[in-house]
């Protein structure tokens, strides 16, 4: 039975404004238009890095109404991982504080080589072991919470809604309907960038095992 802490509705990309969660004081927004996939500093040098990947919104007439589909790729050390992310729009929950619950899925792409991506995720998510011989799946559903929209990012990696920007901040829960693993997934369709970053070290190995099935 689905826990009461998860209300799986859809992400709203067009109408929702504002964000929740703790943010740093706003500073000069980052003006980095580079699309080179890489590991880069997260918030501060001593904190774990994020894994940044290329992202492009694509149209698909088979998608449900008000859904978004992104083609994603990660290139490092001569290896290219390819995958898709589908996100479904939703409504606002104002019971306690304004939040947006969500759902979506990672979709596997034929020909993906995720070996370099998994090694970099292992570092970023503080994993201890790389998965061995993972069974590939066509898709991996997840639940999520939108932590902020129209966010800008300063050079030190901090996010703020003042000034407004194009970043969307999302926390993903795996498996869908549970919380065995949690990871932050932030994306900026204007820059064509997405990024994974750590929620808690305890989730590292579980996330690597699950993500290896579709990335």
Descriptive labels:
single chain; 215 residues; mainly beta; 8% helix; globular; disordered N terminus
Q: Which spans have pLDDT < 50 for at least 5 consecutive residues?
A: 1-46
Number of helices: 2
Whole-number mean pLDDT: 79
User: How big a fraction of the residues is strand?
Assistant: 35-45%
Largest sheet report: 8 strands, antiparallel, barrel
Ends distance? 28 Å
Gross geometry: globular
Main structural class: mainly beta
Number of strands: 11
Task: Provide the helix percentage.
Answer: under 10%
Rg, Cα atoms, Å: 16 Å
Strand order of the largest sheet: 2-3-4-6-7-9-10-11
Strand/helix succession: EEEEEEHEEEEEH
What's the number of domains?
Answer: 1
